[in-house]
Amino acid sequence: MTALSHKIQISLKAFEYCFVEKALHQLNTMISHASSHIESKTVSSSKPSAFSKYTLPLKVQRFTVIRSPHIDKKSRDQFEIRQYKVILNHSADWSSDDLRLFLDNLKNARFYGVQMQIKLCTKTFGPAKKKDRTY
Question: SS3 of 93, please?
């Protein structure tokens, strides 16, 4: 099989930043392990795989609750929800079997307290389309 150019975007969301850091550490080890395993199988690799991390701004949602249901409107509590988000981009020249194996491992990985979203973009070469079509 031929190796195509794949781009994987993994976004992580959590309410605690320590959970995001743990998930990032596990993802970095998974990516480096998969890349070293794939590069050891092939004799010559066209370009090394690369990954980059982008931390998005902190999203804070604040709300106020009145403590007493009947009187004392001045007595209030304020709460906030903080949401941390990190995007990890990875681009590599992997075969479809290697990519499927990596995505299966990524799907079965457990990241507690973290929501993970995976986007995959693959460059493929198909037949040329005709510009002029008549219906």
Answer: strand
What is the spatial distance between Cα 29 and Cα 31, in angstroms, rounded to a whole number?
6
- Domain 4-122: top CATH class: alpha beta
Q: State the first-to-last Cα distance of the chain, in angstroms, to the nearest integer.
A: 37
The type of residue at 76 is R
How far is CA 70 from each of CA 49, 77, 78, rounded to the nearest angstrom? 62, 15, 18
Place of tokens 């781009």: 7
pTM of the predicted protein model: 0.71
Domain boundaries in the chain? 4-122
Q: Express each pLDDT in 27-70 by its tens digit.
A: 888 888 777 776 666 554 445 556 788 888 999 999 999 888 88
3-state secondary structure of 123: coil
Torsion of CA 98, 49, 105, 119, to 10 degrees: -100
CB 119 within 8 A of CB 98: no
